[in-house]
Structures are given as structure tokens and as C-alpha cells.
Amino acid sequence: MTDTSSRDTKNRPLVAVTGLGIVTSLGQGQADNWAALTVGRSGIHAIRRFPTEGLRTRIAGTVDFLDTDPLVAPLLSQRFAEEAAEEAIAQAGIGGRGRFPGALFIAVPPVEMEWPQRQAMAEASGQNGAVTYTDLQRAAASRRFDAWHDLFIFGTVADHIADRFGTQGSPISLSTACSSGATAIQLGVEAIRRGEVEAALCIGTDGSVNPESLIRFSLLSALSTQNDPPEGASKPFSKNRDGFVMGEGAGALVLENAESARARGATILGYVLGCGEKGDGFHRTRSSPDGAPGIAAIRAALDDAGVTPDAIDTINAHGTSTPENDKMEAMGCAAVFGERIGRLPISSNKSMIGHTLTAAGAIEAVISLLTIAHGRIPPNINYAVPDPTLALDVVATARDARVSRVLSNSFGFGGQNTCLVLGDEPA
């Protein structure tokens, strides 16, 4: 990173990345994850966190080496975020003594009380028969459940992260479905471009692998039921794909005004060159049949970066392994990149770590920047039966390549689409 530019193609402050952190089912930290990703190792396995007898899907990419007590989404999400942020801030060499000199933007899963806590409240109500909402309210009002009240508030993860790392101002929590992690990065980029902050800590985290979430996604027919072997279930862009596999973890990025980063002697790992988003209200879960929102998000990211489609060296796909998502993403990419889409390497990390939901966009941004740094594209594993209707250059085994710019796609339920252009030098 020898470029000395401090403004982007639109004369805005250039946004540099100076720190990365990652936690997935493959391991903790950049080194462990990169080693596993580039050899095509899967982190998807049989769920051991709770009983799965009678469930159609019994596998996930859970992070079992950082357990919390109790095993609930807010605490798991907080723990993953802490570990990823710790690594990113240490690499950036910023924020000593718990005083991060910038804002916090964190993507967190929707929070609601989980079944074990609901059952405990029902038992505490003293009713032997049917328990009414009023009974639960009465039980919740007792001091016995004060800790749960704090635990299951939407902003509680952000508050803990802000306290631990000393971020400035009010922390921003957001939840925009599967695009959330990328949206957190976008908010950080925009704050730096507007001159509101010199640095931003952007995190996507999710610890939502619990019985209720698993069953809800299963009822939507969104999950793979190919439980055996677990590591073969997630197969983006393959003809025999049948659904996504839940995963969890966190990705964290330290973003800085490039001029400020250079002034303090920071090592610049890459740049967030462009962000594009497009929402649509077509359906709560399905994509618009014409692919227009996804196409618009990709084009907006390229335009924001000031680059043409030819400048992209590889695509880090959303690639969930559901029949519809992969078809729509392939169609959208073909509309933007034309005939070149058959020669443009594309790969989905979800084939190895599963769909980390709220965290996905941030985790995949970290992996995209590691791809640039190492010149190696991680594989889209389980691509044994190509879908002949998708004319894509799917990276079935890790591929060495000169990578300067990556398009990272995040397409969420409810038509929430966010795309990022990440690069090793200004456009």
C-alpha cells in the first residue's frame, strides 16, 4: 500500500482499513480461518448445543470453542463481537487503554427471549394450566428476572462493546437481515466520508443458532436437510443445492480516514472503495423475479467506487446455497458483468462456514480483504454437480490470482441488499 492519495474519485475522504478480526466455526482469528478456508475445510457439523431429535435439519456452523452461560443469542453475539473487535483493534494499533477514537456501528441479530427463559417465566407465574400473556408480564415484573431484562434488550450488545473498547458517541445497532454486516461497514464509511469521525469500528456478529431460529427457518423451507455428511450440505451454485446451513461468528473492521491513518503511521490493509444498497418490498423472504434490486445494488457499489465492472477481479458471492438465491444472484451478476461473468471467478464462503446471517457481510468483507492480501481465492466447496443454467466461473478449489478489487455481495430477506467494493489501492 504505497499510494498516498487521501481523496477518492468523488473527492471524499478515502476510507482505509487498518484492522481485521474474525471468528467463525473454522476458528478464532485471521490465521486459523485463512488456513482452513484456503484448504477447503468445512466448519459445519452436527449440532451439539441442544437436542435435534425429530428436526429436519440437525447441522450448523456453530462456534463451540467460545461457549457462554447461558447459551443465548445476545451473549454469544457479544462474545464473538468482543473477540473479533479485540483482534481488529490490536492489528490497527489504535484505541489504547480502552479508548477507541471513533464510533461503533454493529450489526446484531433481532433479540427476543428464547424458549428456556420463556418456560422459566411461565413456571414462575404459578399457573399450572394455560399461561396467559398477563401471567408472563406478572412474572417478568418480579426482580427475579431483572438480569434477563438487560440481556434481551436490542442494544445491549452494542452497549457492552462500546463500554469495553471505549468507542465515542452513541453506539449504533442495526439489523437489516442478511445484509446487516455489510450495512454496518457502509455506515462507518459514510460517517468518515462526511467528516463526522476519523475512525469507525464496524462489526457484524450473530450467535443465533438455537432451536427456535432453526425451526423458524426450517418452516420457511430455507434450510438444507442434507444432514449426512454435514460438511457436504452447503453447496452454493450446485445443481443439487437445497437450502442454506445456519452458521455463526463475527467479523470486525477498523476503518479510518486514510490521511489520518497515514499520519499516525498505520499499516493500511486495503480500502472500502464503494458501497451500494437497494431495498425492495417484493416479499418478506423471496427476491424480486426480475433481479432488479440486486442488480441496482451492485451497480450502485461500482458507481460509488468510481470503477467499471471490468475493474473487479473476483466476486465474494452471497451464495447461500438456496435454489432461488443462487439463481437470482447469478442472473444479477450476469446483467452487470455481461459475458465476462463466465470468466470472472466467483466463490461463496458460506460453503464452508454456513450462513452467518447478521454477521455474514462483515465476515465476508474480512475474507475479501484477506483474499486481496494473499492473492488466493478461497474455494466454493461441494461444487461437484454444476448447475448448467448458471454460467459462472465457480472457484471449486482454491485459486492463486492477482486480486486488486473484490465485489462482496450481501442480499437479505425483505429485499435488503448491500454490496461493497474492496480494494488494495484507490480507484
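Above is the first protein from milestone M3; the second protein from the same milestone is given next.
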Amino acid sequence: MSNEEKHNKKESMRNNLIQRQGEAKVVRKIVSLTAIILVITVGIIAAGGYFYLNSALKPVDPKDQTEKSVEIPIGSSVSGIGQVLEDNGIIKDARVFKYYVKLRNESGFMAGTYNLKPSMTMGEITESLKTGNIEQEVVFKITVPEGKQLQQIAGIIGEKTGQSGEEVFDQLNDEKFIKSMIKKYPSILTEEILAEDILNPLEGYLFPATYDYFTEEPTVEEVVTPMLDKTNAVIKEFSAEMEAQDYTPHTLLTMASLIEEEATAQVDRDQIASVFFNRLDIDMPLQTDPTVLYAHGEHKSRTLYEDLKIDSPYNTYKYNGLTPGPIANAGVTSIEATLYPAETEFLYFLATPSGEVLFSKTLDEHNVKKNEHITNQ
């Protein structure tokens, strides 16, 4: 290669290098400019969001002292309450209200008619909804005792609302109604309650408590909504432990209902739970009489040997494991016993006529106690 060719080659390489350096500078400028624009854009959005939230959290009109009558329906969710408040001009944005309530962990809002003002702060509004500044008076109360079954609860509702228990029971088992409740309470009512073997989908989900009602003739939905609200709240309290033990609301309430139906005293429940879990651990049938009576759809004080022959997945003498669903409504004590059973080696328990519960490790020991306290009665 001649000296001239070598010179030209070097010159070409130098020109290419200069060109690439120039291109690199242009790219760096574009990247820098893009980054600056992005930062500015994010800053504008963040600032806009901050100013919007700050404005939405302030009173609609600090000078407007006009009282507005605002009705919060029974069973309203936080989103529903927020929308009612927004529609009535008490707050600026229902979504902001929802986030405010969630972040501050506010709860205990009550249904009723409230006198609220556009000048009220978000804190004043939530306190009013919690303290119950309600114009309406309680028209009647419904008390649902622990251990009641859906059919019995339907009877209680019927007596208070002027309907027949059969009509209420039929609506509580209506497929369209059940699906509407699943949609309303997706965290507790899942597709599990629609399984083929389930006798009554809402069995065990109407929480035992006393409920206030503010209208003379509420619908069945309006009656059971606070009951489902209560169940939802109780389940939420135990959500961390449920997740740790791999419980769904359905399995938790199913086991709790068996404990509830067998327990004769609050102190026995964790030990009864231990018996059930010990049996499940060795694949032994639970053999609990209330499940047999539930399969028969009967309420009686004693289960006969003839009753045990019924071919039903609820018959825990015939089929191992839990029943397809709850057989009654369980209280908090039975739910706690399910989550925190006693540590025992008991496989049997016997409820005596006096109400005492006797526990045994072996069948022979159980039979001796049975002969002493039951057979000879």
C-alpha cells in the first residue's frame, strides 16, 4: 500500500470517528432532553394530583351552613356512602372519601338519615356517620342466637316482618338472590356456596347478633344485609390467621358450625375442636350427630341409630372430612376455637345430660363414660 493510500485510509477513519462522536453527542442530547421532559411531566402530574386531593379533602363550601337531609341506606358500602355524599353535595369526590376512610381505618358507619352541611370537614362527616346522628328511630330489632340454622332464622325474620318463615326461607335460597349476594360480598360469599352438595347456600353466613331496623317493612335483602356485613367484618378480623392456616371463609365457617352445634359451654369449644382436628389428621370420621340431623332436616334432642343410615354428604358417620358447608351459624368463640384449637390427644367426647363434656383418648374409655352417663339414664 502506497503512502498516499495509507494517508487516505487514516483520514477516512478519522472522519468516521468524528462523525460517530457527533452522532453520540446528538443522542446524548436527545436522551437528556427526553429525561428532562419526563421529569417535568411526572412532576406536573404529581403536583396536579396533590392539589386535586388536597382540594377534594377540604369542605365543599366552608361558608355554606345549609343543612341537608342525607339518607344512608342499610347495608351501604363505603363506596356507596361516598357516592351518596357526593350526590348530595356534601363531599367533592366519592373516590377520595373511600381512600380517606381506608387510610384512616375508619369503620362503624351507621345507616339512617343525617343532617349534614357542605361546610363540614371530612373528619366531621365520618364522625357524624359513626356516632349515629340519626333522625330515624329503631322500629324493631331482630336477635339471631348462636347455633341457629337458616330455616330457623327465616322464621325469626318472618315473625318480625309479617311474612311466613317459608317465604323468607325460599327467598334466601333463591338462585338469583344468592348470586346477587355473592356479587355484593365477594370476599366471603364465593362459588363454594353454589356447589351441588350444598343444601342451603347462605347457611352459616348470617352472623348471630342483635340488629336494629328503621323501616316497618324492610325487604329480605335489607334484613340480611347487616347480618352479612357483620360476618364480613368478623372474617376480616381473622384474615391474617386464616391465610396462615390456608382457610377460606367457607371452610372456616363450616368447621366452626360443627363446633357450635356440639358445644354445651364456651370453655369446651377449643377441646371439641381438638377432637375434630385429631380425627381429621388420622382420616377418622368426625361422627357428629348434628350433621346427621341436618341431613334429615330435623331438630330433635337425640340421634337414633336408624338416623345414621341416611346417604348424605352431610352425614359425618358415613363420609369422612368436613360437611359440604356450615350446618348452622357460629359465634366468635367457635371461630376462635377453629383457629386456635387446644393441643390434646383426645379422639372422643361425650356430652352428659347435665351439660358436662367428657373427653377420652380411646374408644374403650369413651364407652365406659357412655355407659355411666348415657346408657343407664
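Note on the second protein: The CA atoms of residues 4 and 51 lie 70 Å apart.
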